[in-house]
Design brief:
Length: 94
Amino acid sequence: MPAMHFIVCWPDGSKDTCYSPSTVVERYFQINHPYLLHDFVEITTKALEEASERVNAKFGYYCSSAQDQLSSIMTRAQRFKPEQTVTIEKITAI
């Protein structure tokens, strides 16, 4: 189960390298597609929850790093207005 990094470009132009324990994020995001902030948080929640479920199915425990990453994204998202957009710049295997 290869872990992935995905680079988030926030509305202010700043970037974060985020973590997923699974390739499942590739099914949820399109590179350089503008996501409304609300949609981005919703999609990220689904993607990281599914990734953590995959870890649980394989190893018998959930991925705390996926939950930590989701918490960080949600905290960061609160700094922006709901109508602003976020893009995923890149998704790569670690």
